[in-house]
Design a protein that fits this description.
Structural class: alpha/beta
Largest sheet: 6 strands, parallel
Bound molecules: 2-phosphoglycolic acid
Order of helices and strands: HEHEEHEHEEHEHEHEH
Strand content: 5-15%
Shape: globular
Radius of gyration: 18 Å
Number of strands: 9
Length: 252
Amino acid sequence: MSRTAALIIAKQVRSKPASVLGLATGSTPLGTYKELVRMHAKEGLDFSEVRTFNLDEYFRLNPSHPQSYHTFMFENLFNRMNLKPGNIAIPDGMAENVEGFCMDYELRIRLAGGLDLQLLGIGRDGHIGFNEPGSSLGSRTRLKTLAEETVRDNARFFGGKKEVPRLAITMGVGTIMEARKLVMLASGVGKADAVKRSIEGPITAQVTASALQLHPSVTVVVDEEAASTLRHRRYYAYVEKMAEEYEAEVGI
Ligand code: PGA
């Protein structure tokens, strides 16, 4: 899963060195970032012109906190790649004027030319970013209340539920849907139900990842466990095989 996702991102950056990437945090993309770092060190993958916008950040958690998404991104990717510091954007959980900050974040994405590729994880409740069940499918960057299940899921990083922030600034579903390409990752049996509901269920604000069904260019990268309950999984594997054969034939 990680290797496939890293190859998609590397292909994007090689074909457009000044790509604008939307990035995600959490345990799922860790292997992908590791692989990108390896490709940078060993294969000359160049991020010097890349601009990045992260999906979300905890509200009122200092960026220097070990569990902030700032810390996560610098430790796992930015400190190991050759991005220009001025080309990195992560929501500011300490912003005084949150509404103003969120509007400005949207504007900055637009002024950068829009997101070429947005990387996504998925929560067990089907969220993308921190767009919890009930988030409008047209939502923009804003302050969002974390669902109880998300707080519980993230408690493992904080050494307890009490320590987990209850609010976060997150890109909205509408913001995410404007990216030209979406790549969603999921691994492990714990994500199988969310994956199934987002891919094969109805499009609903109760499972914000289901909005991806309306996007013209989405790749969902899953391991066997996360795919295990998909009704049409054999067909999806067959489509992938056919696409590979077609690519080999026409030489793309
Ligand atoms: P995880 O989080 O990668 O840590 O499972 C995914 C998410 O909540 O979006």
